[in-house]
Design goal:
Elements lengths: L2 E6 L5 E5 L17 E4 L8
Antiparallel strand pairs: 1-2, 1-3
Length: 47
């Protein structure tokens, strides 16, 4: 299951969410209700 990172345009809060394929992605910040943007990481860790 992928983990997505989001940042709020209003308050700047960042958080990660674990999602199954088919789940809808969040659109509102859980802290302030502001609009979210998905953050794309530049690096991937492998173990």
């Amino acid at each position: 299951m992928p983990i997505y990172e989001f940042r709020c345009k209003n308050c700047g809060e960042t958080f990660e969410e674990l999602y199954n394929n088919g789940d809808s992605l969040p659109t509102k910040c859980p802290k302030c209700g502001g609009e979210l943007v998905r953050v794309y990481s530049g690096s991937v860790g492998l173990s």
